[in-house]
Amino acid sequence: MTIDKSLARKISGAYQSTYSQLVRFFRNRLGNSNDADDLSQDVFTLWLNRKEQSPIKESRAYLFKIANHVLIDHWRRNQRQAKSTVEVDETLMDQNLTDTQADPSEILEQQQRIQWLSDAIESLPPRRREAFLLYRFDGLSQSEIAERMEISISMVEKHIAAALVHCKKHLDNQSNKN
């Protein structure tokens, strides 16, 4: 994709003047800053990748229009993930209860570990959780995840690795408490 110099200057100027406002916009609506930077970057990526090449008269207004759409998509993804996590928890608990002919203390320990893992996954930042769930539970490849989330494969790898480390630490901490 080639971008003419005047468009590049316009995008660069809009980035410098609007980026911090977009980050603030996302932080205020999400209640945290975990994804505010990522979503702000997504806004500019969408602008650069737009198919329509007609000139944009008011770039700030256009960027915030994109930001609203990005925010709605983000909320929808999180709702789907929360639903998916609950379904995974229920499936794992049902499977563990029916597959095991263990004594009640073993069943209780397994249920505790499942709950700890669920808590660990829920405490991940939303984009990291999404990448992890798509990889581990939906069985998507890293390249499929990168395409779906519109991020690089390297970023997918980082999200998955960090999620695994986070879950292991969380489980270790919980095991040490008991």
UniProtKB/TrEMBL annotation:
GO terms for biological process: DNA-templated transcription initiation. Gene3D superfamilies: 1.10.1740.10, Winged helix-like DNA-binding domain superfamily/Winged helix DNA-binding domain. Residues 15-80 form the RNA polymerase sigma-70 region domain. GO terms for molecular function: DNA binding; sigma factor activity. Transmembrane segments: none annotated. Keywords: Sigma factor, Transcription, Transcription regulation. Residues 115-167 form the RNA polymerase sigma factor 70 region 4 type domain. SUPFAM superfamilies: Sigma2 domain of RNA polymerase sigma factors, Sigma3 and sigma4 domains of RNA polymerase sigma factors. Belongs to the sigma-70 factor family. ECF subfamily. This is RNA polymerase sigma factor. It comes from Providencia stuartii.
